[in-house]
Amino acid sequence: MAFTSPADSEDDSYVMVHPDGKHSTSSPDYFAAICAEVDNLSAGLRTVSLEIHDNPELQYKEFHAHKVLTEYLARQPGWTVTPSAYGLATAFVAVFDSDRKGAVVSFNAEYEGGGGKIKLLNAGAYTNVDISLIAHPGISPDAALVRTAAYFAFKAEYFGKEAHAAARPWEGINALDALITAYNATSVLRQQTEPGDIIQGMITNGGLRPNIIHAYSAGRFVVRSSSRARVEALKTRVFACFEAGATATGARLKLTPGGSYADHVPNHALGRSYEKYFNCLDGDIVEGDLDILRSATSASTDQGDISYAILSIQPSCWIRSEDDTGKQLGGPHTPDFEKAARTEEAHGLAMRVAKALAATAVDVLTRPELLAEVKREFDETKLVDELPRGADHW
């Protein structure tokens, strides 16, 4: 995570004309300098990227990536780097401070499972931060106003009573029957859920032997929807399915929360700034509501919790995961995408995204009216939500 505060320059403006003439837009003259600086850094960033790509690590164990990134940033003039920040061994903070008053912009660099951003949020990492910027690659069209789904995971356990399934089954209480009843009930429930509501699950323990009335069963389940409020409503209906399993069989039910993400709520004013700059670099992000519709996703991210706390955008960028004929191959979290993400084309796209994000940050730092606009929008659209952020709540 990197923080920046305002530069020392005045905010002069000029007109940048897109090469095909379609995108003519007023832009601060910082943009040319930003593009030149990113181009100068590109080769070094490519080396860093390949080093991390060639040494994959799992969540909270990214020790090599932590070392590579912190050492790289520590070599850059003006940056102060704190390794293993906020009690997390693989978290770090890199700060560039201009010693001037103004907004603070955070660039979220991490991407991991396990809600790392929520841990940092709860630890105070985002205190006094005004805006959080991050981008995410995929195989859908480039977009500025990405809104992700809210998410809640839980573990279900049933406790019954063992008995011989052939000799005296009536003496048992079948915990597996309870779980199967709940599983089937959630499948039936899907018929009456709204678009965007998702119920997922798996059985992790189905008993010991087929000739036993099972005393224990367990599974892991996930509910997703378009907003945190919708997830809360869906959870109530899903939990009723699990209560039904207990009622039908006499088994005792235990539900244990496994974590949650809020939906990501993009700030439209920030998104317009990003769109302007990205499209100046041969991008083709569509405007407004069409962008929201085209970029809608049922995927979830802990950046959603950040967006409930401070201003945020999470643009998506399209890495072409395709075969030689142009056929679409696998998206994120697949071997196909792993290969596509290592290409020169993907690196070039990342550099374009970096330029647009940096220019968006400079817009905020140098245009007080934009900062006021994004804050006003945040205050007007902020949802009333009394639930603890990132909590394992019921």
UniProtKB/TrEMBL annotation:
Region (Disordered): 1-20
InterPro entries documented for this protein: Bact_exopeptidase_dim_dom, Peptidase_M20/M20A_hydrolases, Xaa-Arg_dipeptidase
SUPFAM superfamilies: Bacterial exopeptidase dimerisation domain (SSF55031), Zn-dependent exopeptidases (SSF53187)
Gene Ontology molecular function: dipeptidase activity
Highest taxon listed in the record's lineage: Eukaryota
Entry's family note: Belongs to the peptidase M20A family.
Name of the protein this chain belongs to: Peptidase M20 domain-containing protein 2
Organism: Friedmanniomyces endolithicus
